[in-house]
Batch of 3 targets.
Target 1
Amino acid sequence: MGCTHCVKRCPTEAIRVRDGKARIIKERCIDCGECIRVCPHHAKKAISDPLSAMDHYRYKIALPAPSLYGQFNNLEDTDILLTALEHMGFDMVYEVSRAAELVSSATRHLMKDPRYSRRPIISSACPAVLRLIRVRFPGLLPNVLPLHPPVEVAARFAKAEAHAATGIPVEEMGAVFISPCPAKVTAIKMPLGAEQSAVDCVVAISEIYPPLLAQLKELQKTEDLTRSGRTGIRWSVSGGEAAATLNERYLAADGIENVINVLEDLEDEKFQNLDFVELNACSAGCVGGVLTVENPYIAEAKIKHLTQYRPVSCNHVGPGVPQNVQWEAPVEYQPVLQLGQDVKSSMQMLSRIKKIEKHFCGLDCGSCGAPSCRALAEDVAKGFSTEEACIFVVRDQLQSMASEIEKISRLLPRLAPAEGKAHQEEKAQPAAPGAADGKNKEEQP
């Protein structure tokens, strides 16, 4: 439609509008879903697996995110929802909130480990935030908690538990994660901290909601399937993970703009006496993901009501941190925002960008298809666009052309009035009499 809502809101300036179509620079995209959230025309959609993908596996494991509990009205017991998932065709249901409690327990162990004395420790649970740190705040990578997110831990523990109970090979099992956001889809397809994810496919909450709601209406009897407490389920709302560390010196922020502000302040060492920082790219936490169906703040209220009388926690790790909970590989800086190959070429490119930027008005209107004048200058310097993409540059060029045309028209020679009159009289002279008489004679009948 030609609008630039997504361009202006992208935290990594990964979107450009070219020829009337928004295009994503995949190297810069962190899959936060902000472009999907703000688009008034629903032009963007997140890619996830269809529900039928679970039919490819012999043994099907459902991994419901704790944010799923906040999507339904009058849900007083999580067993109802988990039983309905089994009736949909899943052989096993393993709560992600159960694994969240294990990650919280491992976090408490690591915070006491002298090897992780650098403070504050930043949560690695939100994949969008982790990717944002990797491309924009590489200096904070040593502060990131080196633990897998709960969904990855849930898939690993669920497959091990199912294999021990049934003897079915792990290769024939399919772990299906019911996800609230597209960042978790990317975290499964291209995991950080691991070579390959144990999750096999990801289904959006918005896709499973209608058939699950129909199953809930037909449910006659429930089974005792819940194995998680209050802390695990409240991971789905902002502050839930931080509260589970049982440490009062923590900070929790949600919403991508607030996350960026906190990361900038952390980089500048403005925060003192902080032990743990929880950051969620979505407003209100995972309940605010773009693949959910309920208002995030209403879902948050439902989660708090649901967990009001639940036990604090039902799962703990042993004296040490299990190996399959920790990263197998470090997360390294990805220089997608770097201007050149080295410092010298980057400085040269930066100097050129500043010169080009001076030609623009500095309004950051987005009419050029770039989020700011500085971003357009960078595109011009890299050869991806031209200065004429700016409507104000084109306007100035048209005004300059109009001034030149007016100046030239003033310098053109003009005919004197007397010469013009003589010229008109010469053109008005009648033809010779003979010629006229002859013509008249021929025309007579």
Target 2
Amino acid sequence: MPPLRETINPVDRLAELTGAKWRNLAAAREYTRAKRTELQKLLDQIDTNDTSIVVFGSLARDEAMAGSDTDWTLLVDGIADPLHVSSAQEISRRLEKAGAPGPGPEGTFGALAFSHQILHWIGGEDDSNANTTRRILLLLESKPIGQPDACDRVLNNVLSRYLNEDRGLWDAAKKRRVPLFLLNDIARYWRIMVIDFAYKQRARGNRGYALRSIKLGLSRKLIFVSGLLACFSCSLDFSDEQWVEFSRSRNPQPLIAHLRTVLNMTPLEIVASRLANYEDAFPASKRLFDAYDKFIGMLADNTPATSGKSPREHLADISVDDLESDKVFQEARKIRQEFGKALSDLFLKPGIELYNLTVEYGVF
């Protein structure tokens, strides 16, 4: 095999290592990056030194396609200013004029978000589901459009809180090298997503159940997995000598810089970059990404199903009473099951070091 290029995307690198071709993932990445460039031009000169326009969802994961929601927030990190509302309204106006699909109806995105709540309310009474969602997705699934300064400051400060206040992380005697304060908040967000799914099922009278169910088991679960791996990387990517120095100095900056580098990747890139280290697990890694490639391909497919709608539209509209007999849903569920089985083989079967870390830190 020829030497791998240093600049190769981690997903493409894993594809080379496993002999795979994930064309749907490559096409989605190309489409998404072009779309973010369009948005940057569209929203030019709205942000300032104390604000960042940040996109989330498929636009941040490099998984967007025609019709994908535009999940955004105007992140404020500075003195309160009445003009911030005007800026958020201008973003909405420009997106609507351009015909960009808006964010979901829950109100988590498509408005202002403030660094104070994101940073200071971690785990407190005021840390609502929406605030937790904004914070964790800012870490795991976000891309600034335009000026990144405010977003960078918030990310650095949030990570500083997670690390500085994790006393066990700096206790040399414990030899714990995984940031549990951060990991537990990521795990809490995963549980929020699962519970929120059940709530929406009831609140919406099962409308959209099929599509949300498939997304929960694939793209939503991927976010959680990438967060686990980011936390595990603090143990996997530093030597014993480096951790001795960390414990002695109690300086979180090297870990913050490391986590920023990891979290700057998309969830798929985080997973691929880690799995590329485990040759024995290449078959399971290939099955994992094969399934996700099929999932992206299905959502991007405009070929009409028997209902006359695209697979994505069909899944969004199908009644729960028809799920067991519906071919599109059965195919999507099979993809979800393949993805879940591959994850179990990678994280919950003895053989590679991810198993030990998952059992020790990700379960109890």
Target 3
Amino acid sequence: MKQSELFYKTQKEAPKEAETISHQLLLRGGFVDQVTSGVYSFLPLGYKVQLNIAQIIREEMQAIGGQELFLPVLQPRNIWEQTDRWEHMDPPLFKLKDRHEKDLALGPTHEEVITQLVAKNINSYRDLPIYLFQIQTKFRNEMRSSGGLLRTREFLMKDLYSFHTDLEDFSQYYKKVANAYFKIFKRCGLSAIMVEASGLGFTNDFTHEFQVLTPAGEDTVIFCPKCKFARNKEIYELKEGDKCPKCSGILKLQRGIEVGNIFPLGEKYAKAFDLYFSDKDGNKKLVIMGCYGIGVGRLISTVIELNHDDKGIIWPKEVAPFKVHLVALDMENKKVKSFADKIYQDLQKLGTEVLYDDRLAVSAGQKLAESDLLGMPIRLLVSQKTIAKNKIELKYRNKKAEELISLSKIKSIVKI
């Protein structure tokens, strides 16, 4: 992509209402644009990041047997009444009427729709288990949106639903999803911990959140650095400095961002929609369900909160909108332009996602500052000085030092 053709605009200063680092950098870099409170447009750079994270999630869900589908945003009132959530959802549903005066809601989640769908399509234990997921827009009628993409009213979410014959089968898959989540977060450049949380009306058992520890977080987590014990502030009865109930280590208290959650749903929705199956003996039994969510926009913000410096974003390679930022200085010079154009063409032939700063009449200082702000993992710099040595300057965004390399090395570098 040539930067001269890219639809974006950077800002030197972020709006005053942008309090978190991620919100500031997303706005300054032209990744998103705020339409109204809690609602954002994703510009080309931001949308590429969203697509990359969605693809990471998709691959890991398919690796544990997930089948992707796509469910409707518009949902009729009657299915929400079957679960007693039409009037008692928190935050409340976005409700509307169609031209026939029928009540509809914009889906904040899809338990009702997916359970009704599966009830139409299974009969026997031979039809189970089933794992269905989607990456779909959700609507949450939040009282207050905050932190940019951390808490919004409209957002992209992966929700996976699993359907089982018994608790043992469910428990085994629950662990598989947890392991898949750790893989997703690692690929996004994050280290997450699994935290016990309340059932929130879904279940009497603990549910689990995946928290990335950072001062920018909205949640408070008590955890043990020595073992895997961790609980959300809503349910812990311990305090910082106490001994861990599992290993006798010393507990710590820290802020965190919730980047995912997994819920045992039990038989709650199966009962509401008559979701039964016949076992080997012909007995009719309720299906056991689980639900597993990841907010894509929230994950984008968390990546930035943990991967930035005072100059801008430092994108992990699998998340970055472009892997390479090719920056050409002195573009008015024909030799520089020809040299840079050739490298750009070669990178494209290699299948490398590259953003080429081919802009004229833009100072070297501005180009370099924007490159740091946008945060691609690899910067290749071409100038009169580098081509005089038949070299190109290489800089990794997460390192301070630059180095001059020969053109023959570019292929091996961009494949890393």
